[in-house]
Amino acid sequence: MIDRIEVALAQAGAASSDFDLNPDVILPGRRILRDAAVLVPILDDAGGPRVLLTKRSSKLKHHPGQVAFPGGKIDDGETPEQAAEREAYEEVRLPRGHLRVLGRLPCHETVTGFSVYPVAAAIRPFTPVPEPGEVAEVFTVPLSHVLDPANYTVEKRRWRGEWRRFYAVPYGPYYIWGATARILRGLADRLDADHG
Question: What SS3 state is found at 17?
């Protein structure tokens, strides 16, 4: 499966956004987006590949308590791959050099003003150490769960006075939604198209 992901990501793909399911939203033409990168870490586990995710600290100002990939803003001079690896080290102590980049998913624009570059990588087993100021929990989800489009729902919530629709892919006690779910859905769609 990890080899299939690498092959699928070598093909060009369309960008995604938090607005994909909200065609009525009119975006300002001259919005300024900040560059960020996230690592989509895939652990080749004995029971099958798993995606590593974090639950953000409830004390954070932005996106408290949400499920997310390790990631953050891209510093000057960094590539998305370098930023994603640095952030994964800072947030969960993924050892540097402990991953093999499989490829980049298309850029994803968030409703909060970021251009997010998702970097998929195969990671070796390690013991995560959550950064206490940012990460409340580190957990894994079977890759097969997030690659199955049937596990996704479209839900809606009021945001700034308007209804906003978004993808969700719950797993056990974890509610995976928003940009994280949209990026995973993009990966699922890419592999589904590659398989078909």
Answer: strand
| C-alpha separations of 153 from 149, 166, 178 in Å | 9, 8, 11
Q: How many whole angstroms separate alpha carbon 109 and alpha carbon 77?
A: 21
Closest by CA position to 122, among listed 41, 68, 46 = 41
pLDDT at 98: 92
Could you give the CA distance from residue 75 to residue 81 in angstroms, rounded to a whole number? 11
CB 108 within 8 A of CB 36: no
DSSP-derived secondary structure for 83-96: HHHHHHHHHH-PPT
Q: Quote the pTM value.
A: 0.91
State the Cα–Cα distance between residues 172 and 160, nearest whole angstrom.
29
CA angle 143, 37, 140 (to 5 degrees): 25
